[in-house]
Design brief:
By secondary structure, this protein is mostly helical. It has one domain. The chain has three helices and no strands. α1 crosses α2. The relative contact order is 0.15.
Length: 91
Amino acid sequence: MATVELPADLVGGMVLGEFVLHGWDLARALGVPVGWSDDVLRLLYAEIARSADQGRSMGVYGPEVPVPPDSPLLERALGLSGRDPHWTPAS
């Protein structure tokens, strides 16, 4: 089995994205409110911005969902990752 070494900051950003983005997915589907600190959201946004094109080419992120630039940082990060920040589950 081949071993691939990745920079720690890249792996950390991937893990952060997994927790926050999928945490939001689950919380939204269940109707449970979520919140993260501004520091976490700034880091998340920077990580998604850094990897969005590559993520889309790999099928990790969907097409960017347009979000107004003055929207909360979580909404901008969600849009950049291909999620609609205003999505709600069907009733």
